[in-house]
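User: Here's a chain of 96 residues. Predict its fold as tokens.
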Amino acid sequence: MTEKTEHTQIGIASIILGVFGLIFYIIGWFFFSFVDNRLYGMLIGLILSILAIVLGYIAKKHGDFYGNYGMILGGFVIIITVIIAILATPTSVEIG
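Assistant: Prediction complete.
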């Protein structure tokens, strides 16, 4: 027989923020690039991801395993941000 675990609202909010952070990051990267304002969408996604990690940590302390999923989603967006920042940064400047 399985135990029924209660999920806190903080854990569910962590997952929702992680998913929205990923969606806003993808929208900011792909769709806002045509308007040359991709930074705003990516920044919103990054902020939501950080909030997902914080809420996930709080939910995990209360024993809700949904917090783990929110932390994983938030961490995934932050890792993608770091990789894209490294790859998109110019390494040399040509003058002339």
